Amino acid sequence: MVSHHCSKENFSSGLLSYMFGLMFTCMYCVAILAGLSAQFVADSFTFAPISEGSSFYMGGYTAPFDMAIICLIVGSGLIAFLWEENYGSVGGVGEGGVLENLSAAFRLIRSDKNMLLMAAVVSCFEGSMFAFVFNWTPALDSKLVPPPHGVIFALFMMACMCGASVATLLGNSLKADVRLMATLCLAIASFVVMAFAAGQQSITICFGAFLVFEFCCGLYFPAVGVMKSDVVPEHVRATMYNIYRVPLNAVVVGLLLSDISMIKVFTSCAALLSVALVAVVGIRGDMNLRSETTSIAYKQV
């Protein structure tokens, strides 16, 4: 999207923040409808085998997954017929392209510390987000009243949409790195509250902290999208973004396989977000220094 926005359509880079905010706002609107629809089909159809003696079941909690298959088929059709191919910048496609791009990306990582810092930001925040995804259902579990997971998910997406809408409204009035630092501070506070609420077994407080964190997710993605577009060069963008997935998945798998308590998971997520905050501060300082150096050199010329 960054390549199409800046290169093919020649839109202003200043509109990129607005574009990301609009994209995520629309996505979360669809996600709200998906959550409510999933709850409806789960409640409407009884969990039972397709036929007597069959190993395949439908209805109940499997119904939303069946509905997801339909959504994926529709999405695949739209991509196949409406999307044009987009390789980003010219070059690196074809024989030897993957190895060349990987080599260029790793050379860039060794020479530019901002690439490593951005990897830390992505891995720590999104790793915490996925750890949250695996823990919110047991955290809200109640034997008295079974939680309506679809409705809760829709509320989470509503909070995300509010965050994305705020990001869109702020636009260029607040720089992406400043928005990201504020987002990380709020997210750290929400995980601290989650850890406290989990210890006190307070579902109400825990749910409130969950909504705050989802609001932070809505703020995070537009801001980090702009920051990554500034930090990562176009010619290795796709490769670098894929490299960032490696430590991200390592964080998620590490938290899942560690078999630690929910309180420790939330505490670990707060610590990871603190690392991400330090990384954003480091990127901001380095970019400001580069900007000042460029300005001084331009004046001297």
Task: Report what the structure shows.
- The protein has about 300 residues and is mainly alpha-helical.
- The protein contains ten helices and two strands, in the order ααββαααααααα.
- The protein has helices spanning about 1-10, 15-45, 65-80, 95-110, 115-140, 150-170, 175-200, 205-230, 235-255, 260-300; strands at about 50, 55-60.
- A hairpin with a 7-residue loop joins strand 1 (about 50) and strand 2.
State the assembly state of the protein chains. single chain
Envelope shape: globular
Run of helices and strands: HHEEHHHHHHHH
CATH class: Mainly Alpha
Give the CATH architecture.
Up-down Bundle
Q: Please tell me the total number of domains.
A: 1
Low-confidence stretches: 91-96
**Major pleated sheet:** 2 strands, antiparallel
Helical run tally: 10
